[in-house]
Write a structure and sequence with these properties.
Elements lengths: L1 E11 L5 H19 L2 E6 L6 E10 L2 H17 L3 E12 L4
Antiparallel strand pairs: 1-3, 1-4, 2-3
Length: 98
């Protein structure tokens, strides 16, 4: 079994309040969840209105699938014009690592 996680550090575009931030982040999180069937949530910078950290996790029987899904999530976020992807931190863990 393979588990993959990825932290996506995101700068939001023309956002001036937490309410506007929610109107950008919630649809993005929902689209990631729907499109890739992964666990996803806003995990940091919740009180900053122009910044967020989105955490994504996926479990699979093979490493290639985990890498493929997390790469696709990263491409989706990077392609969104209303946000700027600052950095990503992927991690891959095998059940044999324990």
């Amino acid at each position: 079994m393979w588990t993959g996680t990825c932290e996506l550090d995101v700068l939001l575009g023309d956002v001036h309040s937490l309410k506007q931030k929610r109107s950008v982040v919630r649809p993005l999180v929902a689209e990631i969840r729907r499109k890739f069937d992964v666990s996803v949530a806003e995990v940091a910078h919740r009180d900053l209105h122009r910044r967020t950290m989105i955490g994504v996790s996926v479990v699979s029987g093979d490493r290639e699938h985990v890498v493929e899904v997390l790469d696709a999530v990263e491409r989706l976020v990077a392609s969104r014009p209303e946000v700027q992807l600052l950095s990503t931190r992927p991690r891959y863990i095998s059940s044999e690592d324990y």
